[in-house]
């Protein structure tokens, strides 16, 4: 089943849930996923904003792997590339 709009709706829901917690890792993951879904729905600017938000949370965790993956996602977005990495 391929339903990108529904996937984005669920990612939005995940962000809402994550934002009610103090878990920066969960927030990083949720915002990254929302960025991926927005990117898949050709919403590049919105994807970039989500990935920047995820990067802010990743910085607070000290998780360099997540930060690097997010920077790769942002770079891919800027180049119009549909390859992205897990945060």
Overall pLDDT confidence? 90
Beta-strand fraction estimate = under 5%
Topology-level CATH name: Serine Threonine Protein Phosphatase 5, Tetratricopeptide repeat
**Rg, Cα atoms, Å:** 12 Å
Oligomer: single chain
Q: Count up the helices.
A: 4
Q: Class in CATH?
A: Mainly Alpha
- Outline: flat
Order of helices and strands: HHHH
Q: What structural class is derived from the secondary structure elements?
A: mainly alpha
CATH architecture: Alpha Horseshoe
Spatial separation of the terminal alpha carbons? 24 Å
Characterize the biggest β-sheet: none
Using DSSP, what is the number of strands?
A: 0
How many structural units, i.e. domains? Answer: 1
- The unreliable regions are none
Percent helix, as a range, is: over 70%
List keywords for this structure.
87 residues; mainly alpha; flat
Concise description?
About 75% of the residues lie in helices and about 0% in strands.
Can you describe this structure?
By secondary structure, the protein is an all-alpha fold. It has a single domain, classed as Serine Threonine Protein Phosphatase 5, Tetratricopeptide repeat (Alpha Horseshoe), CATH 1.25.40. The chain contains 4 helices and no strands. It has helices at residues 4-18, 24-40, 44-61, 64-79. Helix 2 (24-40) packs antiparallel against helix 3 (44-61) and helix 3 (44-61) packs antiparallel against helix 4 (64-79). The radius of gyration is 12 Å and the shape is flat. The mean pLDDT is 90.
């Amino acid at each position: 089943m391929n339903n990108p709009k529904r996937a984005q709706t669920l990612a939005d829901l995940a962000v809402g849930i994550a934002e009610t917690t103090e878990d920066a890792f969960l927030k990083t993951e949720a915002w990254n996923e929302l960025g991926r879904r927005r990117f898949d729905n050709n919403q590049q600017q919105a994807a970039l904003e989500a990935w920047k938000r995820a990067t802010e949370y990743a910085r607070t965790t000290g998780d360099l792997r997540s930060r690097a993956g997010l920077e790769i996602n942002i770079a891919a977005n800027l180049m119009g590339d549909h390859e992205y990495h897990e945060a």
